[in-house]
Design a protein that fits this description.
The structure holds two protein chains of two kinds.
Chain A lengths: L17 H12 L6 H7 L6 H19 L13 H14 L18 H14 L2 H8 L7 E3 L24 H35 L14 H8 L1 H40 L20 H36 L6 H26 L10 E6 L10 E2 H35 L4 E4 L5
Antiparallel strand pairs in A: 1-2
Helix pairs in contact in A: 1-9, 2-3, 3-4, 3-5, 8-9
Chain B lengths: L3 H36 L31 H24 L60 H6 L2 H11 L27 H4 L7 H22 L3 H17 L9 H27 L5 H31 L31 E5 L2 H37 L5 H15 L7 E4 L5
The chains are: A mainly alpha, B mainly alpha.
Chain lengths: 432, 436
């Protein structure tokens, strides 16, 4: 077992022992995190037979959990080590992980613990990983409802097993699937309505119960806990475990500086890599089909928009020239034109900011806890149902307009394609 | 018949949408089951158990003695039962008006909060100490109702005691314990143990109280999350600097000075540009539909349109760059498809709201409207996506199909129905034969 260098850094005020503390906190804050020993020893790649393999596989598994956005208990969680390692490599690469050595590691977990440690630290440095993982596995004590649409089109997980290599299908099958989809949506709506009614009743009947005045009534989870004390016991234990992890995360945040200094030394022990021209050119080893397809869709949309704009601009420009061409070109004229130009530039600049910014919409993200109050009063950080309804209605109107426009485009296009044929009469379906 | 690759894509898309729906439905149904069960009468989950006056944890090693109660014990219990029944009768007489302002003597002081309650006999139906595993003295305060536990002494004993009395004894024994409890129950009719009053949320829901341990854990939980939120925003400068330094070191050590564009970033950028497209289009609509009053406005309109055109050009240029950066390499054979998409910004979040915020509603109607609108928006989103996919697949087929015989007509009809009517209505095609 090697010795780590004792760094006494006055700036950080680190005493000898801050590093183990930090590592211990980190290990406690990660889900089923490897023991601190593993972290420390991972720095050394010496194949100490048993322990090296242990370290390495523990780290592969941890990385897999960190990178996989799916909740635990999913089918993916029970994959073999090789498969997990492969997916880890793929995911890291798609996030832009710089080190090539990782991609070349054997996937059986026999070596490479130092590289894995570096990969983990890279992820930790880029984002609040322990917090995110905690938030993901969080125990929802209330009845949660998610307002934003971020998860709406989230990946549905591993592709369904019936990815049959189907041959050509009849278009009627497509129509049938579409109908089935509509039916399922209607089912969803009615189930959802029933659930809301029940939820509302439960909230109503248990008002006045909660110790927390701002909540006022029990949630389904809490009521269920009272009805079934065993389940309640489990819930309590889970909650307490979460509290422990929260404390660990807080401790980690306080002591992490020492860890980063240490990681710099770990990095220093690696030989600098040479970007081999032959082995791995700049490529993305895995581009999701959907992602590639999405690029195409966007390109097509923008091109269509470009067309429309070009026509509009030509028309307007011609009209303008005709109208204003005859007018004089006095100084106040050009001043006015300049003022207009500046105003337009500013406006469009502001418009561009709307999508340039990385941050999401101003609307709050994430799940909200449903609370029933007769007066509907809400604090400043809370949402009111009435406001959300308003927002959703305007969204609905917007989306309906988009859909109608698309359908109108299709109608025109189809009319153009088929209209030329003689001897056919096209009778549109009865209007809505 | 549609060509094979087109079929595959279409079926895959629709199947994906169907699966997503099915998943939601499953979750909803699960939740519905739970809610319905809560609203019905609560059943007893296990055997009632009594605890002999305070002997905490005495029975750990003796979980479930299957002994029969001694006659002595039975007699004592009988006496106890009668005494308690009398007490309850007396109290009931006092509080006939239903006011609960008596602090009964048997009531422990530690009972939480408000007006004294006539300790009464809660029906046995609420969850008791889960005796399923035969945990003997279940004095954990996490129970929702004040119960005590002793090793179950068999059915005989239970039948002896009326519903209420069991709890009464229990209460006495647990006097020092701060239990959560069901307060102020209407007494079950006398000593008949046969037909205990069922507990329904509707009638007695407002009397429930959460267990103390749970409350403590929950408040600790929310305060810890709040702390996390505050440390997040005021992250130590040193730590951030150290992290940035480390990332840079990693980058330089790998020999590549500039980070390459990653798939996740390409996707994020594509999403941004899609948003840009819709915003630009919206703006264009506004300009085109506004009727300019004077030449000044007209000029501005023209400038705006030209500006929009330039911006669209920029976006397209950026997209071409992205396309070029993405060189698709055939992926290695993999047991499972590659990792799912990078985490959406929502989870964890750019601005993570670590402590949960509230969504306040005031009536069932409001909640239902809210939920319905949410589903509607999600559905429209999906429909628009499917529409685009269908357009991309079907329109080329219609335009290039040769010869244009009956199969082609069928295709046109189907395409029209899917693309223009959302699959809901179909048009009719009449062959107009020239009169012979």
């Amino acid at each position: 077992m090697g010795r780590r260098r004792q760094r006494v850094d006055p700036a950080a005020g680190a005493r000898a022992g801050a590093l183990p503390e930090a590592i211990a906190a980190l290990s406690r804050s990660l889900p089923s995190g490897p023991s601190p020993e593993i972290f420390r020893r991972a720095k050394f790649d010496r194949p100490e037979a048993v322990t090296l393999a242990q370290r390495t596989s523990a780290l592969w598994q941890l990385l897999f959990r960190v990178l996989s956005p799916l909740p635990v208990g999913n089918a993916l969680a029970s994959l073999a080590l090789e498969a997990q390692a492969h997916l880890v490599k793929s995911a890291l690469c798609s996030q832009g992980y710089p080190r090539l050595a990782l991609a070349q590691l054997p996937e059986d977990g026999s070596q490479g613990s130092r590289e894995l440690l570096l990969a983990l630290s890279w992820l930790l440095a880029r984002g609040p990983v322990p917090e995110q993982m905690l938030a993901q596995a969080r125990v929802p004590l209330g009845d949660e409802m998610t307002v934003c649409q971020c998860e709406a089109l989230a990946s549905p997980g591993p592709p369904a097993p019936h990815m049959e290599a189907e041959g050509p299908v009849d278009v009627r099958r497509v129509q049938w699937l579409m109908g089935k989809l509509q039916f399922r949506w209607r089912q969803l709506v009615s189930s959802q309505q029933e659930q809301c009614a029940l939820l509302s009743k439960i909230h109503l009947y248990t008002r006045g119960c909660h110790s927390d005045q701002s909540l006022g009534h029990l949630s389904v989870t809490e009521a269920e806990m009272l009805r079934d004390p065993e389940g309640g016991q489990q819930l309590l234990q889970t909650l307490e475990r979460e509290n422990q992890r929260l404390e660990a995360v807080l401790a980690w945040r306080h002591t992490e500086l020492v860890f980063w200094r240490w990681m710099d030394t770990v990095l220093g022990t690696c030989a600098p890599e040479v970007p081999a021209a032959a082995s791995q050119p700049t490529f993305l080893p895995w581009v999701p089909e959907r992602g590639g397809g999405e690029l195409e869709l966007v390109v097509r949309e923008l091109q269509a928009l470009e067309e429309e704009l070009r026509e509009a601009v030509e028309r307007r420009r011609a009209a303008w020239e005709a109208k204003a061409g005859g007018c004089g070109r006095g100084p106040e004229w050009s001043a006015a034109r300049r003022a207009s130009r500046e105003a337009v530039e500013k406006e469009l600049g502001a418009l561009q900011q709307c999508w340039k910014q990385d941050s999401g919409p101003a609307r709050p993200h994430g799940p909200h806890r449903l609370v029933r109050r007769e007066d509907g009063a809400a604090g400043e950080r809370d949402l009111r149902a009435a406001e959300v309804i308003r927002t959703l209605r305007s969204q609905e109107a917007c989306l309906e307009a988009v859909l109608r426009r698309l359908q109108g485009q299709c109608r025109q296009e189809l009319a153009r394609l088929v209209g030329a044929l003689p001897g056919l009469i096209w009778i549109p379906p009865p209007g809505r | 018949m549609l060509p094979a690759d087109c079929s595959r894509r279409l079926v895959a898309e629709l199947q994906g949408a169907l699966d997503a729906c099915a998943q939601r439905q499953l979750q909803l149904e699960q939740s519905l089951r739970v809610c319905r069960r809560l609203l019905q009468a609560w059943e007893p989950t296990g055997t009632w158990a009594l605890k002999p006056p305070p002997g905490p944890e005495t029975n750990e090693e003796d979980p479930l003695p299957a002994c029969t109660p001694s006659p002595q014990d039975l007699k004592e219990l009988e006496f106890l039962t009668q005494a308690l029944e009398k007490a309850v009768r007396v109290r009931r007489g006092i509080t006939k008006a239903g006011e609960r302002d008596k602090a009964p003597s048997l009531k422990s002081r530690s009972i939480v909060t408000s007006p004294g309650t006539t300790a009464s006999a809660p029906p046995q139906s609420r969850g008791q100490a889960g005796q399923a595993g035969g945990h003997a003295s279940d004095t954990r305060p996490t129970k929702g109702l004040r119960q005590t536990a002793v090793p179950a002494k068999g059915h005989a004993e239970r039948r002896l005691l009326s519903v209420g009395d069991r709890t009464r004894v229990g209460m006495g024994a647990r006097a020092p314990r701060p239990g959560a409890g069901l307060r102020d129950q209407q007494m079950a009719p006398s000593a008949a143990p046969q037909a205990p009053e069922a507990f329904t949320l509707k009638e007695k829901g407002h009397l429930l109280r959460l267990p103390a341990a749970f409350r403590k854990a929950a408040s600790q939980n929310s305060s810890l999350w709040a702390q996390l939120g505050s440390t997040q925003t005021s992250d130590s400068m040193d730590a951030t600097a150290a992290k940035t330094q480390f990332l840079q070191n990693m980058q330089t050590a790998s020999g590549v000075p500039q980070p390459r564009l990653s798939a996740a970033e390409v996707e994020a950028e594509a999403g941004r540009l899609r948003k840009a497209c819709s915003l630009l289009r919206l703006r264009m609509r506004e300009e085109l539909s506004a009727a300019p009053m004077d030449w000044m406005q007209e000029y501005r309109c023209l400038l705006t349109l030209e500006g929009l055109q330039a911006m669209v050009g920029q976006c397209l240029h950026r997209l071409q760059e992205l396309r070029a950066a993405v060189v698709v390499q055939p992926p290695r054979p993999c047991p499972v498809e590659g990792p799912p998409r990078a985490s959406p910004s929502c989870r964890g979040g750019a601005e993570p709201a670590w402590s949960p915020q509230l969504l306040v509603y005031s009536s069932t109607q409001e909640l239902q409207t809210l939920a319905a609108l949410q589903l509607r928006v999600a559905m429209l989103d999906q429909q628009i996506h499917l529409e685009k996919v269908l357009m991309a697949e079907l329109l080329p087929l219609v335009s290039t199909a040769q010869p244009q015989g009956p199969p082609w007509l069928a295709l046109c009809r189907a395409a029209h129905s899917l693309l223009c009517e959302g699959g809901a209505r179909v048009l009719t095609i009449l062959r107009d034969e020239p009169a012979v």
